[in-house]
Amino acid sequence: MLAYLHIPYCDSKCHYCSFNSYVDKFDTRKAYMQALKRQLEFELERFEVKKGSIETLFIGGGTPSTVAPKLYEPIFALLKPYLQQDAEITTEANPNSATTSWIEGMKALGVNRISFGVQSFDEKKLEALGRAHNPIQAKEAIIRAHDAGIEHISLDLIYNYRNDTKTLLHSDIDQAFELPIDHISAYELTIEDGTKFTQTPEVRQENELLAFYVADEIRKRGFEHYEISNFGHYQSKHNKGYWELKDYIGAGAGAVGFLKERRFYPQNDIQAYISDPLKIIEEALNSDDLLTERLFLGLRSNIGIESNILNESMKTKANTLVEENKLRKEGSRYFNENYFLSDELALYILG
């Protein structure tokens, strides 16, 4: 069992961001966190959560570091009995708002992992992406988190922006590894509907080789490539829980929850959510939907896929991929040798 909390506030809107986030509703933060607690109380009953059964808690956004630790206190008090003693508790943060007092306040609540939205250490690239921090702030925030005793620290990088070169990305990776991190998420820039970059799609370059280059450079420095966009000495338990299709509570405006064959969608709009955090749309998933998800998620990560979920035709195709050295079989489980081919492999097996 996992839990996710969505914090929809940001101090600025990045040009590529399609997440449910707002830069103009900070006056609603107190009411929003109260509504978030109300939904969590409801979900703990709906999911029949037992004491000590939540393995991971992830606070995402938006920008969780735009909300003061004091406003998180009632939520952590509510969740504390349900969290495992060694639960992984992650919060995302932006370098410009993750102050020493904020980091120390979140650590006091139980946070033991912070994922920083860095994206690059190149000042011009940060400006072009619409980021609100500079390279020095990024480095200082990560060092502050380490000095405060945060056990696990991750940072995000983005590649395939139009001015990206191997030289620039090599520098970004080098600078990342000079910092006290044990995880990197490296995402390819995508142009999503409704973002500022929708008007200038040419800012994304089509260079498949850069994906392999970034992955190789990060692996060379000792991080394991355990999912198409994720690398680390430490592998996020929360991320892996999603890929294993574990049940997860999704609380907050724009969050998503999952329980067995159902998904749950709270309202996106902050004011609507505050007014009624229990107005939640349900979506039923059939066995084909779940099989498809297991294949796509398993093949893009080191989770792999269990052979007993495949019919005979699918097993034949999977075994063909083993013979072609595109999949590896260990016992009754298939593992992908190249995450960047995961979609094609999944479609071939399903076909």
From TrEMBL:
Subcellular location: Cytoplasm
CDD domains, sorted: Radical_SAM
Pfam families given in the database record: Radical_SAM
Co-factor(s): [4Fe-4S] cluster
Keyword Disulfide bond belongs to the record: no
Keywords: 4Fe-4S, Chaperone, Cytoplasm, Heme, Iron, Iron-sulfur, Metal-binding, S-adenosyl-L-methionine
Domain Radical SAM core: 1-227
Domain of life: Bacteria
Gene3D superfamilies, per database record: Aldolase class I (3.20.20.70)
Matches recorded under InterPro entries: Aldolase_TIM (IPR013785), Coproporphyrinogen-III_oxidase (IPR034505), Elp3/MiaA/NifB-like_rSAM (IPR006638), HemW-like (IPR004559), rSAM (IPR007197), rSAM_sf (IPR058240)
Record-linked SMART domains: Elp3
Role description: Probably acts as a heme chaperone, transferring heme to an unknown acceptor. Binds one molecule of heme per monomer, possibly covalently. Binds 1 [4Fe-4S] cluster. The cluster is coordinated with 3 cysteines and an exchangeable S-adenosyl-L-methionine.
Family listed: Belongs to the anaerobic coproporphyrinogen-III oxidase family. HemW subfamily.
NCBIfam families, alphabetized: hemN_rel
Protein name as it appears in the record: Heme chaperone HemW
Organism, as annotated: Sulfurovum zhangzhouensis
